[in-house]
Amino acid sequence: MRVSNETIEELIGIINDSLGRTGNELVIFFNQFGFNHIYPDNVHEAGSKAKYTRNTIQSINGTAKLDTIIENALHPRQYINSHRNINDIVDNLNQFLGFDGYEIIHNGNAFTVKYNNQQHSGSLKNLLFASDGPKPEIVLVDTLNYDIDVVANKNHILIYDQPITADGLTWQDLVGWWSQTYNVPSDQDRKFYHRLNQSLASSPPEQLFFWTYYETFSPTVYEEVPALIPQVYLHYDPYTLRQLNGGSRIPRQRMDFLMLLPENNKIVIEIDGKQHYTKDHINEPSPKKYAEMVSEDRRLRLSGYEVYRFGGRELMANTKQEEAESKERVVDFFEDLFDKHQIKLTKINATTTP
User: Fold this and answer.
1) Is 194 within a domain?
2) pTM of the model
3) How far is Cα 345 from Cα 178, in angstroms, rounded to an integer?
4) pLDDT over 60 (residue 351)
5) Domain range enclosing 219
6) Are the CB atoms for 132 and 156 separated by under 8 Å?
7) Element (H, E) at 48
8) Is residue 352 in a domain?
9) What's the CA gap between 306 and 37, in Å, rounded?
């Protein structure tokens, strides 16, 4: 599961304060879930118990481990001799989780995290991206719950099926999902980079764009780096349904790159080769193709997206100087984009809890 920063702060209060855990007790609590922390080193390095707990939760935000930790922290047996009422704690936490698309429900004598479909009715439920082969064939199978199915070439596509919170989608979210889904250690995220890069094999300009972004704004250097998602075939928004006109076939919506930033800011980035504005197999200009392209841009903007286009010629690397200029152009763009949306990346320092 993936929760917002506001929910994390509420969880800090529950884990740290509801039972008055000491720093040593916090380390013992988290180590039962696979951490290898040491008291007092990890707590003192963080600077306080609250920062230690915040760092630890953030390190597994977007993974199934967070579900387990929350369910354990809320287990009624821990509150048998406490003056705190666990039902009041759960009710208050649910006010925060409701905005993230989750709720805590009774499950026998304990509590369970549940994804609440009703809270996210009309929001993104599937993200299909990074095809390394033939295009996927996508159909709508449940208009009530916005469920889709990939009926052909599913083995070539990645499908992110977790809810997107108000904090957007970060690289940490994607790696956590990939690690859990494909049973790959999350510290081997370099493999994930290369899997995504496979979907860009036919476009050197797109590869340069992709690698420049992650080399410059590296998730190993900065916290909460927004994910740059390549070759997105479907960002599932409610407007998709209106396009169906009663049919079941979902129209192609491939985007070269998509970013889902905080506060529902959706960024589409297109890298235009000559195939975007010339006739097939020849260099003759095609007004029809150009008209289709600008028409699609209008539709996306009216649906709430920001659309930015690069000419393929801007991202060439035939010489070292050309490559350096292309990379500088990419970095300048993202710095301006982050400034526009007031995104300030925080460097991971030496005191960050592992």
Assistant:
1) yes
2) 0.61
3) 23
4) no
5) 127-347
6) yes
7) none
8) no
9) 43
